[in-house]
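Hi X.,

You mentioned you wanted examples for the new student's onboarding notes, showing what a folding record looks like when two proteins sit in one file. Here is a clean example. The first protein comes first, with its sequence line followed by its structure tokens.
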Amino acid sequence: MTTTSLGTWTGQPPITAGSGILSTDWLPGPSHGTHSPVVVSFTDFHSDSEEDWQQIAALGMELAESWPIMRGAVGLWLWGKHVELRGGSLSIWDSHADLRRFIRWPVHVAIMKNWRGRIRVRSASWDDERFVPPQAWLRAETHIRTPRDM
């Protein structure tokens, strides 16, 4: 992960070596560059089959294509831990209202309804007084590194 002259972040998160975690590069949203209080949202899906894992990962990448227009979105990393058939996102938002708007977005609702019962999803969110990408990632990584019930 690197910082630009404007203080914004690009690239990979600070993934712990040997953890088996893969990640996209930082995907900036319209509020990219903010450091003021933010809402951090972590999601973790676990599938029972390779085929489902591949499909949901592809859906995540499709959703990410809309990221630049998500009002209130600071940025996003998608992550995966293939050996455990797990993956998810770490998204940063200006406010709880912005996160709720995304959760209620009809495209997101349709995906969740379609996959209900086929995958197991956990989520967590927290408020940070100041957005510091390495700190947000390391907190999320503690969730990722905790094994899921298989």
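Then the second protein repeats the pattern, sequence line and then tokens:
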Amino acid sequence: MAKPKWRDFPHPEKSYDQAGGALEKNWPRLHKGDCEPFPSTAHLKKLVAAQPKLAPDGAIDDAAAALQDAWRAYHRGDFAAAVELGTSIGLLGVNVANKAANIYATYLEKDERKQLEIFLETTRRAEKLQAAAPDMANAHYFYAQALGRYSQGISIAKALAEGHATKVKKALDAAIRLEAKHADAHIALGAYHAEIINKVGAMIGGLTYGADKKAGVGHFQTALKLNPDSAIARIEYANGLVMMFGKEKLKEATRLYEEAAASKPMDAMERLDVEMAKEEIA
């Protein structure tokens, strides 16, 4: 796949580079939300031994080096390069390509049609990865993230009619079943409950889609316990509280937004979250 012609990340910082050994050193903090394992040669060998369909065309050492470079591109905000590098590796590079594509489309793509196309491309890549490695949590999570964003783009009502909500919930449940500490999946499940309740009401949402205010709050709180530094957990929690409870939770939502805006970002995605929080407060 050729490098997509995408908009540049607007807040370049040298500290987001993760050059050399910095990537592995900072990996636990950078991936506290998605629990993606560090792509060392040893880890990839173990993955391929368990799931032979993941085997790259070339040597595992080369795949590991390319995958680490793809993640470096992602963390510094070169999302197009992350997608190009990730897809060039084969199935082992799908998660980095999908995360980069989802973040780019969510925050930087201004053309709604292109945005939706990017999310659909992610779902297609994720489905191939799910078929090859059904036990990989992020094969399910990045699929749910893309389909959830796509659903918001076509309107929640249309998405519900097309059955996307059920697919998103199933994929998020799978991600958490496979990786209990997946904070980002808990955020997304909290948002799932909030958006369903906001769109169809608590009663129909509960009866038809299993949406529940208490469960929604629980998922957001779990996400913050698992990843206390997360700006996006606070932003989504704030949005969810307003969707589920209205004005009575406005004060708490404002506090969460202020905390998000005061967060110190470690990479491009976190910077985009922080900037969004600042804009919302302003």
